[in-house]
Amino acid sequence: MIKIAPSILSADFSNLIQDIHQVEEAGADLLHIDVMDGHFVPNITIGPLVMHSIRNKTKLPFDVHLMIESPDRYIEDFVKAGADIITVHAEAATHLHRTIQNIKSFGVKAAVSLNPATPLSALDFVLPELDMVLLMSVNPGFGGQKFIPIILEKIKSLRQMLKERGLDTDIQVDGGINLENAKEIVQAGANVLVAGSAIFNSKDIRERVAAFRQIIK
Ligand SMILES: O=C(CO)[C@H](O)[C@H](O)COP(=O)(O)O
Ligand SMILES: [Fe+2]
C-alpha cells in the first residue's frame, strides 16, 4: 500500500484548514509538516504552536519533518503538539542513535532523513531502530524544486539493503514529486510519497490527490 503525504509547505496558509480538509477528504494518508529553523536550512517555517492549533482540526496522522539543528531540544514539544512520526536529519543530529531513542521514548514513530549527498551508509548502525527512512530528492529548504534523478538509484539501493536485512521499513521520498515521476519513484522501491507544490498548487486539490492515487496504485 503506497501512502500519499501532502506537504503543507505549499498550502495556502491563510486557508490552511480548508486545504488540509481537501487533502483529507481526497484520501491522503499522512499530513507532512516541514519544520525549518533558518540554520540547518536557509528557510524558516512553522513550529509546534501552529502544529498544535491544527491538531484537532484533522484526523490525518502528523508526519513531522524536522529540518532543524539540535533536534533533541524540541522532540518533546513536537510530540505534545501532536506528532505521530518524527523525522530528524542524520546531518543535524550529533548523537543520532540517542535522538532516535528519544523520539521512540514518547511512543511516536521515528524516522531519519538523508540529504541527497549523504550516503546510505550513514544509516548502517541505526536502520533496525527506524520505522521509516526519508530520502530527500531535493536539497531541503524549499518547496517547488526539481527532483534529482540519481535519487532513484539511492531508493533502489535502500530497498535492496532493507531486503537483505529482512526489514520492511517504510521508504519515504520528498522533493519534486509530481504526476510524471511518481510511478518510477514507487517502482524504485518507495512506499511513502511526499508532494507539496504538485498537490497544493493545483487548481483542484482533491482531483490532484486522486490522480496521484490512480498513478501509483
Ligand atoms: O522537505 C521539503 C523541502 O525541504 C518539502 O517537504 C518538499 O520540498 C515538498 O515540496 P515539493 O513537493 O514542492 O518539492
Ligand atoms: Fe519535507
TrEMBL record:
Cofactor(s) this protein requires: Zn(2+); Fe(2+); Mn(2+); a divalent metal cation
This protein's pathway: Carbohydrate degradation
InterPro entries membership: Aldolase_TIM (IPR013785), Ribul_P_3_epim (IPR026019), Ribul_P_3_epim-like (IPR000056), RibuloseP-bd_barrel (IPR011060)
Residues annotated as binding substrate: 7, 65, 141-144, 174-176, 196-197
GO MF terms, alphabetically ordered: D-ribulose-phosphate 3-epimerase activity; metal ion binding
Keywords from the named record: Carbohydrate metabolism, Cobalt, Isomerase, Manganese, Metal-binding, Zinc
Pfam (any one): Ribul_P_3_epim
Family: Belongs to the ribulose-phosphate 3-epimerase family.
UniProt xrefs under HAMAP family: RPE
UniProt name for this protein: Ribulose-phosphate 3-epimerase
Annotated organism of origin: Geosporobacter subterraneus DSM 17957
